[in-house]
Amino acid sequence: MARKVKCAITGEFGTNETFVKIGNRYYKSQEIYDEDRRRKDLHKKIVDTILNDFLDYQQGQIPSSLLFKKLKELEFYDNEVILKTIEQQSDTIRYWMNNKEFKNENGKIAYMFAIIKGSINDVYKDWKREKDLERKLQGADYNIPIDMDVEVNKQEGKDLSKWLEDDE
């Protein structure tokens, strides 16, 4: 007999026969679980990159809460976009972290996110264009017969040689 269960991610209700059980929790589908896992892994990579590459945190140090507040401000963007932006701007961020005087860690974080916010829209537009293209390619039908006759239209071209200079 089916039991009523709740998806740990979406909060939707269903039955244990229709939902997927992973560990001790139920999920609406494997795809939803995989997407959530991907999103969380990217978030961890973003935080690790910022802490280790730019702020020189040691293992066990407690990060400033401002870091998570600034990341929350960027929640409109996919974590993949945020990570690509950080990777794209890493030289600029590293330069300013090493060559500018900051009063504290929060100043560094605020400056770093100003750099990220300055270029994230361009990265987002490129990322969105790529995703749209991928969706179109997945939905396209490429079953074009190989032995298909193709007519070639040859147009008679105009003689432009009188306009060209003689280099010889």
Which sequence of strands runs across the widest sheet? 1-2
The DSSP helix count reads 5
The topology string of helices and strands comes to EEEEHHHHH
Structural class: mainly alpha
Radius of gyration: 26 Å
Helix content: 40-55%
How many β-strand runs?
A: 4
Principal-axis shape: flat
Strand fraction band?
5-15%
For the sheet with most strands, the description reads: 2 strands, antiparallel
In whole angstroms, how far apart are the ends?
90 Å
**Poorly predicted regions:** none
Mean pLDDT: 84
Can you offer a commentary on this structure?
- Helix content is 53%, strand content 7%.
- By secondary structure, it is mainly α.
- The strands form two sheets. The protein has a two-stranded antiparallel sheet with strand order 1-2.
- Helix 1 packs parallel to helix 3 and helix 4 runs antiparallel to helix 5.
- The chain is flat.
- The protein starts with a strand and ends in a 29-residue tail after the last helix.
- The model has no long low-confidence stretch (mean pLDDT 84).
